[in-house]
């Protein structure tokens, strides 16, 4: 029986890097752990791994008969296949508590911070384990990604402190400049298929008995989507039907002017309008100040559904 650390499906940078950082920590503590991922890497995550010479985690979607540390989620909708056949050892996460349950006690580190890697940093400090330079750099960029360069309302003083300390370990003098370089890579959408963009940072949720899908793309200029919206809408409609979903939403988030353009395909658009207190025009709406799906969208959507 092997032990793995793995994040959610359609993995983002936090999900991938937290699997790497947690696996190293657990291995140093005497419990051999292998980092894994449930999907292909985004251009941003590829940038992070290449920048700090980190290996890609193992691609794996079924941990039947294995031990598993879950990182960056606790919802069944984001879990690997046959989770009931997996021995869950722990959950390390910064989201709301989901619906995953276990039959035995487990280790839980769940904190209201901006990034799972911030929690893993706290774990390193707790156990007094030194973080390797390369892993520290990856953790630093993952936190900057999840907190949108500290602009997200999910960002806390714990996150900013962690980034500053990790930057020193990684030998990065100007972490903000490197973070902006990362977001420029994240903004490169030209040539990508509509489906790959929709699923780049996408999660399904169960709300009021309905399956709701919410994706998010963070860029430095929304103009990159001007000629892509028609194709995005068409693919969203197809994806909605394929999975029997009530709603599929895609947030196009501009990190410079700090807000999000919502693209919505839904059986009942009025629910989304009430949740966000904004009217849709041709299935689109701009919501000023919305940067966080986790804190500013999901809670109000769940309440409305």
Automatic annotation (TrEMBL):
Enzyme Commission no: 3.6.1.1
Alphabetically ordered keywords of this record: Hydrolase, Manganese, Metal-binding
Cellular component aspect of the GO annotation: cytoplasm
Transmembrane spans: none
Catalytic activity: diphosphate + H2O = 2 phosphate + H(+)
Gene3D superfamilies: DHHA2 domain, inorganic pyrophosphatase (n-terminal core)
Cofactor(s), by name: Mn(2+)
Nucleotide-binding keyword on record: no
Residue ranges annotated for the DHHA2 domain, each copy included: 179-305
GO molecular function: inorganic diphosphate phosphatase activity; metal ion binding
Enzyme class: hydrolase
Stored PANTHER family: BNIP - RELATED, MANGANESE-DEPENDENT INORGANIC PYROPHOSPHATASE-RELATED
Name under which the protein is recorded: inorganic diphosphatase
Organism: Sulfurospirillum multivorans (strain DM 12446 / JCM 15788 / NBRC 109480)
């Amino acid at each position: 029986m092997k032990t793995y650390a793995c994040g959610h499906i359609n993995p983002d940078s936090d999900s991938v890097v937290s699997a790497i950082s947690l696996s190293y920590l657990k291995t140093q503590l005497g419990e051999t752990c292998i980092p894994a991922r449930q999907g292909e890497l985004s251009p941003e995550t590829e940038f992070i791994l290449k920048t700090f010479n980190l290996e890609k985690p193992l691609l794996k979607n079924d941990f039947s008969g294995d031990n598993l540390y879950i990182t960056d989620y606790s919802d069944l909708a984001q879990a690997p296949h046959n989770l009931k056949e997996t021995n869950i050892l722990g959950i390390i996460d910064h989201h709301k508590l989901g619906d995953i349950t276990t039959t035995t006690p487990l280790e839980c580190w769940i904190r209201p911070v901006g990034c799972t890697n911030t929690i893993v940093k706290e774990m390193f400090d707790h156990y007094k384990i030194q973080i390797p330079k390369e892993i520290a750099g990856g953790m630093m960029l993952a936190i900057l990604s999840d907190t949108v360069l500290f602009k997200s309302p999910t960002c806390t003083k714990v996150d900013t402190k962690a980034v500053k300390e990790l930057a020193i370990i990684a030998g990065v003098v100007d972490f903000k400049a490197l973070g902006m370089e990362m977001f420029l890579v994240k903004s490169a959408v030209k040539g990508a298929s509509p489906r790959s963009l929709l699923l780049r940072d996408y999660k399904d949720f169960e709300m009021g008995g309905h399956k709701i899908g919410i994706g998010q793309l963070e860029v430095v200029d929304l103009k990159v989507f001007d000629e892509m919206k028609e194709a995005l809408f068409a693919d969203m409609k197809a994806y909605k039907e394929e999975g029997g979903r009530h709603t599929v939403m895609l947030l196009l988030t501009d990190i410079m002017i700090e807000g999000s353009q919502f693209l919505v395909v839904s059986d009942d658009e009025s629910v989304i309008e009430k949740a966000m207190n904004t009217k849709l025009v041709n299935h689109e709406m701009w919501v000023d100040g919305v940067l966080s799906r986790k804190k500013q969208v999901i809670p109000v959507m769940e309440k409305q559904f």
